[in-house]
Amino acid sequence: MKSRPLPINEYFGFGRIILTIVLAMALRIAYWPGFLSTINPDWVLLVLIYWSLALPERVGIFHAWTFGLLTDVLTGRMFGQYALAYSLVIFICLKLHKRLRQFPLIQQGLFIFFCLLLSQLLLFLIKNLQHPAQLKATFWLPVFSGTLCWPIVYTVLRFVRLSRRVK
Amino acid sequence: MLVAVIASCALLATENSGQRLDPLRAVLSFFIDPIKYLVDFPSLLLDQTSEALSSYTELKEENKSLREQQLVHQTRLLKFAALEKENIRLRALLENSFKLGEQVLIAELLSVKTAPYEHIVLVNKGTRFGVHQQQPVLDGNGVVGQVFRALPLSSEIMLITDPNHAIPVQVNRNGLLTIAVGSGQINRLVLPFLPNNADIHPGDLLITSGMGGTFPPGYPVAVVDEFTSQPNKPFANITATPKAHLDRNRELMIVWSHSTPVPLTSKPSTNDNEIKASADK
Lengths: 167, 281
Fold this sequence. Notes:
Chain A is an all-alpha fold.
């Protein structure tokens, strides 16, 4: 598959993928007023999950790891924690992508919920290792809001994929 | 998959053991910082348009009030210079050294939020301007926080209200020393280490004590607003409100304090020259 050179429009498509991830990063650190900021979901992970389900041959663990590392820098966390969480979640998504595509949206949402929960759990463990911190219960809210945002992400990215022929 | 996990665990371990990965972070932040500026752009645009659209009379009035304010401050400063000299003389009598002159850099806040449960803000000045870790950050009213991490194009500032932040303070009225810890709420500090019979009242001004060396002494930090003694516990329950407008100001000042204090006045003539030199700076 990698032996044959990619046509121009496939490179172009990859640019689109990166653009959506960069936008997700921007959303991730955007200044939301008041309560919205505490429930701001992990947009980068949602977008990565979508691309890994839709185009598993284009977006793999390496990309997840790289963008996880960039997210670490973006949000000023310890190096490697988002990289670890993202690559684990994307690994699971890649394993199950054939089955997941057949699922109805609600069932898919349940899966996304557990993906986000896994990622948040890893972050929580790493944070606790660092210093047993006083994290509030609101730490877990982005998991729920992220699940609720999944249909939006799904429709928008599906639109991007089909309209621009990202293959 | 295994490679990714091992690589991230290795990174985590190295990061935990020290600051060896800072160069890597600096390099990666070159790619990342444009996103921060991108996110900040809409609010910047909003600010500028509202400035451009504000009417002539409004600007005139604002200008007038600012001019008056400046006059007041100028006269206060005149007095302050004399007081400073006097203070240095008095301290010389007491054989005490005195820190002089602090240099400031004005940095602008980026309206970006990295983690909801932490009070960390980003500003648009980084190591390119010589910003480094643990520098104190002020605004016009008081202490805001300290530089938590300096990247090339931006830096992260931990506010004094962050739950992981503590600042050594003293009560301005009687010099009582203590530590103010962040509470996680933007308008509240906690003073957990004062006994029930401590001489502290609501309305007392807390200033930096200069202990610990991060913050220069004498800057206002907070005003005590509640004192509840807990007879069954060793320490009283005291809260304070920060003086700085933590959630409103867009301009912050990053401070360089001279690390070497002015030597004692053994030779009055040379010391006078030194004072002049640092005042000129």
